Structures are given as structure tokens and as C-alpha cells.
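hiii so um. not sure if this is the right channel but i have a protein structure encoded as C-alpha cells and i wanna go backwards to a sequence. like what aa goes where. can anyone help
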């Protein structure tokens, strides 16, 4: 459980592990899990993550210090807009609960079995808005009628997609930890609707693409936010309220009446 030192992070898989398995998917699973267990630290406290025993249904790794769970998803090439996950009903129950894991998303270059990207999505960024229901399996399928889900990464703000490695570049450990803890206040909200509002506002601010912005800039997303929260008839009031919360939490800073600035990490 010693702290992992980012400048020693090895980015290639141990190919010796693959020789015991014939299935390519099994080979990647074994090699990627072994790599995470050897090289990756908890973004909350910096201790190395540890691997659960095989067959655990909820998560793949845990942090003995923070008691956080992590689930690993690995794929070739780029991360993409969505992650295929498990049963829709189970995921919807887990969203917002203390049992929901954080997600490691790993991509690798198959020609050399090298990790090209490693990202963690903190569990406090999971809301019902980012879970997409998939079509039931056909009646001819072994699990006919089973309904899975996708995690829509494109609906998660940039502050909820924390890279350890981005396009082969290793991000300093202290920066990863600081970015993770900057948004940990989202966990204090047990109400998934309230947390979903904050996440949606963060996404709107990402879309603006600028460090400093005005209240009027955010009002431009009124119709988008109204579509996502149809029960709320006072969208502008809600926008102002959420900006106040983000300011109080140090995510934003007040510049002048009606103007804000994103706090850099």
C-alpha cells in the first residue's frame, strides 16, 4: 500500500501473462487488470489500488485507505462517447449510492500493448442523466429480454474525466489528486436530482469554452436545461442558485456582478 510514484509508471502490459489464455479478450482482461494493480494509485489519497478476488460482481479494485471501489473498462483505440456497462436497473439503483464504484477507463495500442489513455470517472459524477438504457436482448438470445445500459461519457463535464495518462503523456500525480478532490463536494448531495443539476451546469460551462463568463452566457442553455429537467419551471432561478453553490465550493469565483471565473487547478 505504498504511494505510487507517477514518474515510475510503466505503460506497457506484461505480455508473459497472456500465454496462459487463448481468448484475446481474456488476455487483455488479465494483462490490463495486472497493470492497474501494479501501476495505478487512488486519485483520492494516492495509495496504490488493490485488486479484489476474481468474480466480485460490483468492482475490480479498491483503495484500502479511502475504502473506494473501482471498476475497470478496457478497449482498443480511443475512449469514445459511451461505455458499455451492465444491467440498466442495477446501475440506476447504484447511482448516487455509496456502493457505486468509480470507473477506470483504459485504452491501449494493440500493436505494442501499451496504455495510451487512462482516465478515472469519479462516482460522484454519476447521475441518472448519464445512464442510457439499451434495447432488450432479442428473444433468441441466451438472456432474452435482459436490458443493459451505456454510460454516456459525452454527458460528463471535463472535471469528471480525470486523466492519469492522456495520449501517452503521464499526468503528474499531485495534479490528478488535486483535480479529484476539487469536485468531491458533489458526494455530499444524497439527492441525485440536485447533484445532476450541478453536473449539468458544469457541462454548460465546459461548452462555453472560456475561463471567464457572464450569467447571460449561461442563460443561453436555458432550453437545454429545461429539456433535461422538465419538472422545473424556473430554470434561470435554478441557474443562479447552482452558480452560487459552485462559487461557495471553490469551483468558481465571483468577478463582478453577473460575472464569474472558473478556478484553475
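sure thing!! here u go:
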Amino acid at each position: 500500500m505504498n504511494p505510487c510514484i507517477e514518474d515510475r509508471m510503466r505503460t506497457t502490459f506484461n505480455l508473459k501473462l497472456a500465454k496462459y489464455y487463448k481468448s484475446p479478450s481474456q488476455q487483455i482482461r488479465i494483462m490490463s487488470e495486472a497493470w492497474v494493480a501494479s501501476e495505478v494509485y487512488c486519485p483520492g489519497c494516492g495509495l496504490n489500488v488493490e485488486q479484489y478476488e476474481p468474480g466480485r460482481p460490483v468492482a475490480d479494485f479498491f483503495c484500502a485507505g479511502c475504502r473506494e471501489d473501482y471498476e475497470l473498462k478496457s478497449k482498443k483505440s480511443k475512449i469514445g462517447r459511451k461505455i458499455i456497462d451492465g444491467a440498466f436497473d442495477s446501475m440506476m439503483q447504484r447511482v448516487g449510492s455509496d456502493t457505486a464504484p468509480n470507473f477506470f477507463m483504459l485504452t491501449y495500442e494493440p500493436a505494442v500493448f501499451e496504455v495510451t489513455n487512462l482516465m478515472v470517472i469519479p462516482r460522484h459524477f454519476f447521475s441518472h442523466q448519464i445512464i442510457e438504457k439499451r434495447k432488450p436482448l432479442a428473444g433468441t438470445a441466451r438472456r432474452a429480454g435482459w436490458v443493459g445500459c451505456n454510460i454516456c461519457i459525452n454527458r460528463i463535464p471535463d472535471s469528471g474525466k480525470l486523466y492519469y495518462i492522456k495520449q501517452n503523456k503521464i499526468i503528474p500525480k499531485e495534479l490528478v489528486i488535486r483535480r479529484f478532490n476539487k469536485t468531491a463536494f458533489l458526494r455530499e448531495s444524497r439527492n441525485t436530482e440536485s447533484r445532476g443539476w450541478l453536473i449539468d451546469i458544469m457541462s454548460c460551462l465546459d461548452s462555453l469554452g472560456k475561463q471567464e463568463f457572464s450569467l447571460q452566457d449561461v442563460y443561453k442553455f436555458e432550453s437545454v436545461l429545461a429539456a433535461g429537467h422538465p419538472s422545473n419551471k424556473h430554470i434561470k432561478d435554478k441557474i443562479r442558485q447552482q452558480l452560487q453553490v459552485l462559487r461557495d465550493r471553490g469551483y468558481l469565483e465571483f468577478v463582478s456582478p453577473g460575472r464569474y471565473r472558473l478556478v484553475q487547478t
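oh and The chain has a mean pLDDT of 90.
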